[in-house]
Amino acid sequence: MKVVILAGGFGTRIGEESVNRPKPMIEIGGKPILWHIMKEYSYYGFNEFIICAGYKQNMIKEWFADYFLYNSDVTFDFSNGKDDVTIHKNTTEPWKVTIVDTGYRTMTGGRIKRVREYIGSEPFMMTYGDGVCDVDIKKLVEFHQSHGKLATLTAVKLDQQKGILSIGENNTVRAFREKNIGDSAPINAGYMVLQPEVLDYIEDDTTILEAEPMEKLAAEGQLMSYMHTGFWQCMDNSREKGILEEMLAKGTAPWKKWEH
Length: 260
What we know:
This protein is 28% helix and 28% strand. It is of the alpha/beta class.
């Protein structure tokens, strides 16, 4: 099953770093967050990726073009007036990566529509290029296959730390308690499994996947949620980048199952 990763947005909320590179190429622990996401899928045996690039898409292509070389022991032999290159050893993953320029301002649905020819007629997975998770992807796929609907998304509840107030007349606080995870509504964390028919719900480049297509799928009873109670964290801003960096520095990053 192929994995489609949305990696074409501007990432304006993360500040100066996204001026110089697309957000999925911003590094945590010395590697782009895109690499971390791909390692998650690869851990479960999914190694074919379609990257929906856009903003500064050349940087993604160049990074992968150099990736094999940077992770190999190489001899460059110029002694006979030729540029002979011998690869002795490499530590790269068994990935097949297709990087597609899906446009500068294309919306999420439009980006997926543009890679239809690379997806083919089989079910595929899709996620966003700015969040990591410790969801069991094999169980996610099994859940999708079990219900027979067109789409499955991974839903998470974020742990909220602010207190809950019960406020009466004259702004009097009648009760106070700490907020817990049960108070939160589930949110879409990405990590979707989609049947190819979902692409027919997408009109063109202006279509936002999370708007009309998902709303229509839900209305038709074709959208299922896989509840994930473990770790999930997006990287929308510098504070969230710091959270991920700190976990990596301490060796407590839950999504790095490939090292456990």
